[in-house]
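Name: Tetraspanin
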Amino acid sequence: FKTENRRMKIRDKILVQKYYLNVFNGIFLALGLMLLTFGLWLFFDRDNLFSVLFSSGENQLATYISCMLLGIGSVITFTSAVGFLGSVKEFKCLLVTYMSFQILLCVTQMAISVLIFVKKEEVHNQWNNRIDEVISEYGNESLAEQEPVWNILNAVQHNMECCGRYNVTQWERNKNKENSTQIPCSCIKSSPKKWFCHVPRDSIYSMGCEEYLNTWFENNVLILTAITVSLLITQIFLITLTGQLFRNIRKNNIWPNE
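Structure predicted for Tetraspanin:
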């Protein structure tokens, strides 16, 4: 009776651990799908501000980030499937594979978190420099391929009622105007469909777009960081639960021979 009782206790532990493992594995999968969605958004939505600014010319930052997110999201989805199958069917080899993937992903996530922290300021400076560059190139007839970027900038200025990155005087650097008094039509409340307009200074949006642009950038970095940290916390629970489940399944399998 003692032997049977101890074996039942182990089975109870296995059932509880399988339940919690699948719950955390579901959370892990959901976070992985969020990364995958974030990567798909950057890769396919060419109208979002980050992709428009960083997917042209030599600067392929948006492409690199989207590929990295797509890769990690795909690995997480595959790993979750392995963990689910291993726990439900109690396959020890799949549980070991799952735990190995978790450790590898955990190290990768930590490296990405450090990279985001270290490179954030550098990317932010590139972000501001690229916006200044777009303002300087705006309306250049020989750079017609840049029109999607200019349209995005126009949409930001018109919708947020702002002008330039820090204020309207920044447009004095632009050399593509017919004369120095012109400014983008999106810097006024009424914006005809052309690049530059002749307007009196008192009808121009006085606020710069920098605050909005920085908030947009910071919010996206914050979301990505929050997902990464959440993944790390979930992975710690998953590695611990998988190890405990593996030991109990092993005990349960060898118990009749003792």
